[in-house]
Amino acid sequence: EAGVTQFPSHSVIEKGQTVTLRCDPISGHDNLYWYRRVMGKEIKFLLHFVKESKQDESGMPNNRFLAERTGGTYSTLKVQPAELEDSGVYFCASSQDISYGYTFGSGTRLTVV
Amino acid sequence: GNSVTQMEGPVTLSEEAFLTINCTYTATGYPSLFWYVQYPGEGLQLLLKATKADDKGSNKGFEATYRKETTSFHLEKGSVQVSDSAVYFCALKTQAGTALIFGKGTTLSVSS
Q1: DSSP state for residue B70 in the 8-state scheme
Q2: How far is CA B1 from the centre of its chain?
Q3: For B72-95, what is each residue's pLDDT tens digit?
Q4: CA A80 to CA B45: how far, in whole Å?
Q5: Nearest CA in chain A to B106
Q6: How many Å is the Cα radius of gyration of chain A?
Q7: What is the C-alpha to C-alpha distance for residues B74 and B59, in angstroms, rounded to an integer?
Q8: Chain B residues near residue A106 by CB distance under 8 angstroms
């Protein structure tokens, strides 16, 4: 089966611009997660979708971040406007049954200059 | 709050050396514990896991034992290979939560 796909793999944008990251989970996986790793720090949870509903968005840093999962398939994470501290690697993960674990994508490396 | 602390890297070893990467955690209740690995250019992959005290997770020659008394889950391998060079992340999931809580990651570099 195809894995979790994220794109772009890299994005360099200027401060104040908008960027949209996309995640395609494994087909049939209802659970979709976004995580972020800022340079040298922990990978931190951002939010969790179950199908198209936001189950937990407690990790979203502020209202410049907007996540959507229309139709319960792929998800997008938009940052608008981007700030320097938003630079990092954004990971997406999906699972059908949490007890079996998660499958992660390769991540999107975002650089805000 | 819940957290994971793992040893700072980078860790540099010669091929066939013994590896230990320390990981300790703080959590309420009885969390599940994980080691994930990220090879260059790839996503995070589950390496091994343990769901209760004294469980030993193992995979690809790596092992880690869930020690409740010391709140630790140290990763070990008896003989590392160049292909083990990667970033290793210790993580936990609480019984009530669905999200993983990660440590900062430890970069391992193995030379021949």
Answers
A1: T
A2: 20
A3: 999 999 999 999 999 999 999 988
A4: 30
A5: A40
A6: 13
A7: 14
A8: 41-43
